[in-house]
Amino acid sequence: MDFTHSATLPIGVFYQGQLHRDFTIRMSTVGDEIAVVEDGIPDSGTLVGVLARCLTTLGSIPEEEITYQLLCDALVSEDYQALRIAQQEAKKKLSELRNASVITDTPLSGLASTASAKNALEDLAL
Questions:
Q1: What pLDDT is recorded for position 95?
Q2: In this predicted model, what pLDDT tens digit does every residue of 48-88 receive, in sequence order?
Q3: Helices 46-54 + 30-38 axis angle, to 10
Q4: Are the beta carbons of 87 and 28 closer than 8 angstroms?
Q5: What are phi and psi for residue 66, nearest 5 degrees?
Q6: Burial level of 125, CB count in 10 A (0-12/13-18/19+)?
Q7: Contact between residue 25 and residue 13 where contact means Cβ atoms under 8 Å apart
Q8: Could you say which DSSP state residue 75 is in?
Q9: Neighbour count for residue 118 (Cβ, 10 Å)
Q10: Which residue pairs from 96-99 have beta carbons closer than 8 angstroms and sit at least 24 positions apart in sequence?
């Protein structure tokens, strides 16, 4: 399933003489947040850094040029809000998948089942 959302920015990002408004953004992950910290982006810029990592397209700007610095320099507050809302829309797709009962949460019973489930969860975390 595709956990992205596409839309158009209200204002747009000016880059190399052009205004770029159409975008696609994916759902963020904990890995994105960790990468932003590892990249040395200050705490105050974490959300912008995560947005930069999650934008898969922004007009015709090459993906590798969609950076924290570009967004800090060129993104206006209305567009920032539009990106945050779009990211929530991408996340909703995962919630809808959960609500459609594709993934089931069944209670575990018995110590052996609980232990093996805990081990499986620990394996996933690594």
A1: 84
A2: 999 999 999 999 999 999 999 999 999 999 999 999 999 99
A3: 120
A4: yes
A5: -85, 90
A6: exposed
A7: no
A8: -
A9: 11
A10: 97/1
